[in-house]
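WARN retry 2 of 3 for item q-0093 after timeout on previous attempt; input resubmitted unchanged.
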Amino acid sequence: MNQIPRPAVGRLAILSSSLVLLLSSCFNHNTANQPPSAPIASAQSEVASAPPKEPTPAPEAAEPQIDYYKRAINRASSAVAIGQSAQSQDDWRLAAGRWEQAITLLQQVPQNNPNYSLAQQKIREYQRNLAVTQQQADGTVIQATQATASSPDGLVANIPIVRRDGGIPVVSATLEGGQGSQRFTMLFDTGASGTLITPAMASAIGVVIVGDTIVEIADGSRVSMPVAYVDSIEVGGLVKEGLLVGIGGNTALLGQDFYGEYGVGISQNRISLYD
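OK item q-0093 returned
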């Protein structure tokens, strides 16, 4: 009778033990090589405890630039208005103070300002106006005018005042051009640097326009205006030849380009020019 072979239990047990040891060794080796897990709770705690970022402050708005030139023009316009209606030495002192303020403002116009060159010119112009106004405030101009009535030394011209428009003296002037000469009335404006005639005056005496120029009006704005040469202008016996004048508006102005080199004395009914 054939015997059924028995399984090799001993060898199977030894093989199973070896396999367990091998798997155990591999498992321990893999776990030993794995990095330790990150402490999640600790990281979350650090994020939660981080201080909030402060908001970036908004940039400060730039301070507006001061327009010293325009302020100076306004001060000068005020000085002219006060001087044209001045009735006392206190009025003249007030006008002188406005001229001083205008000069100080012009001196603060920076060199990179487009009006810098014009400001330097007006400083000299306003300084002449200030000198005349201070003389009026001190009473020296009126005294000199009265003295020259009997002693004409230094007197250049005595100009009668025809009337006053808004306190501004109006004088009679003879203008000559290509079509002859005619007499007109003009404002004697101590605040005007240049002489201005109307288009009707230019047509009447036949002046020829030679170009355009940019002029500044009282509010500081600039406008374009045609210019022409007048053969001559005569006021109170004083004659200027070949004077370049602006043409525009409805009112003629006799400016400082006509009388600016002289001292000016204004009384109730006449204007005196002196060296």
